[in-house]
Amino acid sequence: MQKDLGNYRKSYEKSSLTEEVISDNPMELFQKWFYEVEASDGVDEPNAMTVSTIGLDGFPKNRVVLLKKYTFEGFIFYTNYESEKGRAITQNPHVCISFFWPNMERQIIIKGRAEKIAENLSDGYFESRPDGSKLGAIVSNQSEVVPSRDYLEKKLKDLEKEYENKEIERPKYWGGFIVKPVSIEFWQGRPNRLHDRIRYSLQANYDWKIERLAP
Ligand SMILES: Cc1cc2nc3c(=O)[nH]c(=O)nc-3n(C[C@H](O)[C@H](O)[C@H](O)COP(=O)(O)O)c2cc1C
C-alpha cells in the first residue's frame, strides 16, 4: 500500500512575527498568541498540547494533554503520576511541550523541567472537576493493560455506588505537573517557506535571550 502526499502544499500567509512587536518575556507573547487563537474561534481545544517525555525504555513519547493553567512560572497540566508519562518525568524531568494552531499557522515549542505542583493546588483543581471526571481519575490506572472495556465500565459502576453521597477525594497518584520553561520557540508560517522563528532561551541571570532561527 502507498499514498503519495508530495502534492500536499500550502502557502502560509496569515501573519508575521518580527522583533519589533515581541515582548522581552516569552510568557507575554504566549499569552498574546493564546488570546488570538481563542478569539479566532477556529481551534476546537486551543489548550490541547503535545507533551514529550523520554521514557524508561529510552524512547521519546508524545501524547496530547490539556493545558489547565499558565503563569509567568510555567505551564500546568493534570495527569496520573503513575502513568507512563508520570514515571518518565520522575526519572527525567526534561520535557518538551508543543502547540499547533493550524488556522493561525502557528506553532510553539517549549522545552522545560516538569515538577509536581503543591498538593493543595492539585486538591483545588480536582475539587472543581465534575464527579464523573473525578471517578474517571480513580477508575483508571492510567497506562496499565486492562482485560477489556467491560472491566473498566464495571469498575466505574462499582465506584459510582461506593461514592454515592460521599465526597470523592483526590487520589494521591493524580495531580498536576508544572513545566518551567528554559526555551520557548515561536513559529509563524510565512510565504515561500521563509517562516518566522523566534526563540527565547533562559539565561543564568533569569533574563531571556532572544534569537531568530533559520526556517
Ligand atoms: C484532546 C486530548 C486531551 C487529553 N488530555 C489529557 C490530560 O489532560 N491528562 C491526561 O493525563 N491525559 C490526557 N489525554 C490522554 C493522553 O493523550 C494519554 O493517552 C494519557 O495521558 C496516557 O498517556 P501515557 O500512557 O503516555 O502516560 C488527552 C488526550 C487527548 C486526545
Along the chain, the helix and strand elements come as HEEEEHEEHHHEEE
Give the ligands present: flavin mononucleotide
CATH architecture label of the domain at 26-126 and 173-212 = Roll
Using the alpha-carbon principal axes, give the shape.
globular
> Could you name the CATH homologous superfamily of the domain at 26-126 and 173-212?
Electron Transport, Fmn-binding Protein, Chain A
Task: Report the sheet with the most strands, covering strand number, pairing sense and barrel closure.
Answer: 9 strands, antiparallel
Question: How much of the sequence is in beta strands?
Answer: 25-35%
Q: CATH first level of the domain at 26-126 and 173-212: which class?
A: Mainly Beta
What is the terminal separation in angstroms? Answer: 33 Å
- Overall mean pLDDT stands at 97
Percentage of residues assigned to helices: 25-40%
Remind me, CATH topology of the domain at 26-126 and 173-212?
Pnp Oxidase, Chain A
Model regions low in confidence, pLDDT < 50 over at least 5 residues = none
The class by helix and strand makeup works out as: alpha+beta
Number of beta strands = 9
Keywords: Flavoprotein, FMN, Oxidoreductase, Pyridoxine biosynthesis
EC number: 1.4.3.5
Pathway: Cofactor metabolism; pyridoxal 5'-phosphate salvage; pyridoxal 5'-phosphate from pyridoxine 5'-phosphate: step 1/1; Cofactor metabolism; pyridoxal 5'-phosphate salvage; pyridoxal 5'-phosphate from pyridoxamine 5'-phosphate: step 1/1
Enzyme class: oxidoreductase
